[in-house]
């Protein structure tokens, strides 16, 4: 029996002894290491280790949660008593429960654990190579540095119903940010790579060159004219639309009636052929997992199939409130992505006489009740199907329902972020500029 399992079983027993009807425990431990370099020298090295425990108890349908960083068994009785005493004074929630769960699958099938911890020297070398490549590009005048990081965590979920599941997850990251130009005309940009296994990281020099290229391309931006134009969204920002969709179809929002899509289940939201999938079962996926936060099975699911909304995103509580079954999304989505289309990004914008290619968005002006959308943006003009001069200091606006309906994807999907989309074209949005 592992240390995490011993701790979980001891805390479940303490909760039962304190009077809980049912309980669930999450015990986790992890370590992380990062190296920050700037202007050719190490700026910071940081290492952290942690152990955490959380306990949720039920008295009937009344429940309460507590957490602590002390997972020594001699502290469990007091922790359990605190949770139970809290549960005695809160109102009952008729929809909340700790669900029954089948035995978990073999987490090794997802290949989420790279057990080799890199040395400080290895991380420093990655960061040094990325920054040196970026600073070596003519026109790059300064650097905000490069960061190389690693982390590994093990998490165990146990419930009083008998479920017990544990898995480990590792993460490797590398990022670099540089500046081009001088004085008030300076522009910054970045590139990064984030993977489960170190061997899957992008080449550090390639990241540096791309960060430099992006920064140089942004120099001397103009402000575009106000109008209604076709907009094309770089994959770096295109995934944000999936985030807005996820928020709008989250079971909790639907149950509260606070989503502009609350009456849209089974209706067409996107053009035919558009598919948006959650796949927590992809090997080495950034958000893959063998079971959800409640121990429920996870599976690949098309929330948008051929343009039609097929399901809400549900945990047990939201499912109970809506009279449905959980989709295995307690704790959030897995690897959420919009399937690629048939056209290359160049072909996608080839017929645009005048439009804007968006590479950066600022702010979060989205109204979840109405779907109204307004954000600051920067990018490049599109003229006769080609990228032209950089532009900045403008706002784009529309309504998400209409934007979803007029969205066309390119064929350049890459799994880089956990929520991913290819280059996207959206017709008929309003641009407020000069």
Helix content: 10-25%
How many β strands by DSSP? 17
Q: What is the 3D form?
A: globular
Give the SSE order as H and E letters.
Answer: HEEEHHEEEHEHHHEEEHEHEEEHEEE
Radius of gyration: 24 Å
- N/C terminus separation: 66 Å
Largest sheet: 6 strands, antiparallel
Description:
This protein has 434 residues and is an alpha+beta fold. It has ten helices and 17 strands. The chain has helices spanning 3-17, 76-89, 120-135, 204-217, 235-238, 240-248, 251-256, 316-322, 345-348, 400-405, and strands at 22-38, 41-59, 62-68, 140-159, 164-180, 187-195, 227-233, 276-278, 301-305, 308-309, 336-338, 354-366, 372-383, 386-399, 407-409, 419-420, 424-432. The strands form three sheets. A six-stranded antiparallel sheet has the order 3-2-1-4-5-6. The longest helix has 16 residues, at 120-135. The radius of gyration is 24 Å and the shape is globular. The N and C termini lie far apart (66 Å). The model has no long low-confidence stretch (mean pLDDT 96).
Summarize the structure.
Helices cover 22% and strands 37% of the residues. It is α+β, with helices and mostly antiparallel strands and 434 residues long.
Labels describing this entry:
6-stranded antiparallel sheet, alpha+beta, 5-stranded mixed β-barrel, globular, single chain, 22% helix, 434 residues
Record the SSE blueprint.
Layout: H1 3-17, E1 22-38, E2 41-59, E3 62-68, H2 76-89, H3 120-135, E4 140-159, E5 164-180, E6 187-195, H4 204-217, E7 227-233, H5 235-238, H6 240-248, H7 251-256, E8 276-278, E9 301-305, E10 308-309, H8 316-322, E11 336-338, H9 345-348, E12 354-366, E13 372-383, E14 386-399, H10 400-405, E15 407-409, E16 419-420, E17 424-432
Parallel strand pairs: 7-12, 11-16
Antiparallel strand pairs: 1-2, 1-4, 2-3, 4-5, 5-6, 7-17, 8-9, 8-11, 9-10, 12-13, 13-14, 14-17, 15-17
């Amino acid at each position: 029996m592992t240390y995490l399992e011993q701790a979980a079983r001891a805390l479940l027993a303490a909760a039962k002894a304190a009077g809980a009807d049912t309980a669930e425990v999450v015990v986790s431990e992890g370590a992380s290491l990062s190296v920050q370099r700037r202007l050719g020298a190490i700026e910071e090295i940081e290492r952290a280790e942690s152990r955490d425990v959380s306990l949720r108890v039920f008295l009937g349908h009344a429940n309460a949660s507590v957490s602590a960083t002390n997972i020594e068994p001699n502290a469990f009785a007091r922790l359990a008593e605190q949770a139970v005493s809290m549960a005695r004074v809160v109102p009952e929630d008729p929809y909340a429960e700790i669900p029954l769960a089948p035995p978990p699958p073999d987490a090794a099938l997802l290949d989420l654990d790279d057990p080799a911890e890199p040395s400080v020297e290895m991380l420093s070398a990655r960061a040094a190579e990325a920054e040196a490549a970026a600073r070596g590009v003519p026109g790059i005048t300064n650097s905000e540095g490069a960061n190389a990081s690693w982390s590994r965590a093990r998490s165990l979920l146990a419930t009083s119903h008998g479920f017990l599941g544990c898995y480990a997850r590792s993460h490797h990251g590398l990022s670099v940010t540089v500046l081009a130009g001088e004085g008030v005309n300076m522009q910054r940009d970045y590139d990064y790579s984030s993977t489960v296994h170190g061997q899957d990281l992008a080449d550090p020099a390639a990241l540096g060159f791309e960060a430099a290229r992006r920064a140089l391309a942004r120099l001397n931006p103009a402000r575009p004219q106000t109008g209604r134009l076709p907009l094309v969204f770089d994959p770096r920002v295109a995934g944000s639309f999936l985030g807005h969709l996820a928020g709008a179809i989250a079971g909790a929002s639907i149950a509260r009636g606070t989503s502009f899509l609350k009456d849209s289940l089974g209706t067409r939201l996107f053009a035919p052929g558009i598919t948006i999938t959650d796949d927590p079962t992809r090997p080495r996926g950034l958000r893959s997992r063998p079971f959800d936060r409640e121990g429920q099975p996870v599976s690949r699911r098309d929330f948008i199939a051929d343009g039609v909304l097929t399901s809400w995103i549900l945990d047990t509580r939201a499912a109970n409130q809506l009279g449905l079954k959980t989709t295995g999304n307690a704790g959030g989505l897995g690897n959420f992505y919009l399937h690629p289309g048939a056209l290359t990004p160049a072909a996608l914008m080839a017929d645009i006489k005048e439009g804007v290619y968006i590479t950066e968005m600022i702010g979060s002006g989205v109204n979840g009740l109405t779907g109204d959308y307004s954000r600051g943006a920067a990018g490049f003009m599109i003229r006769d199907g080609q990228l032209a001069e950089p532009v900045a200091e403008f706002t784009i606006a529309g309504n998400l329902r209409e934007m979803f309906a007029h969205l066309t994807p390119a064929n350049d999907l890459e799994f880089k972020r956990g929520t991913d989309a290819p280059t996207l074209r959206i017709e008929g949005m309003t641009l407020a500029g000069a």
